[in-house]
């Protein structure tokens, strides 16, 4: 290593060769450390990017804390209250799912009503009729499901006794 690449002048003594090898090692380390430092500095974001990331982290932690609080509240609730809360959550999830699957309002009826009654009446009438029909449908489905579950519970109790 100490005799390659120097041309006509190269170290002859052992001490000179050791000095050249050590210089090459330390020089290489210095070069690699400078390159690594510059590369890592180029990866650092701006203050705005850091602000966005910290805001996202705080939102994530806030959601986690809310989930823990809800789990703790459910754990501390009484069994009857827990069943009632579970049923309410299931009903709300079912209503949301059914609402998502519904087709959008028809444009023809909406534009006709807009010309006659105006926008506030249109919106309130459409929303109210939609809410009532969804509530009736959801309650009917949930009642039938609760009835089926009750029948299953009774049949299981009859089998166990």
TrEMBL record:
Gene3D superfamilies: 1.10.287.70. Residues 1-36 form the Potassium channel domain. The keyword Membrane applies. SUPFAM superfamilies: Voltage-gated potassium channels (SSF81324). Pfam families: Ion_trans_2. Keywords: Membrane, Transmembrane, Transmembrane helix. The chain crosses the membrane at residues 20-40. This is Potassium channel domain-containing protein. It comes from Phytophthora rubi.
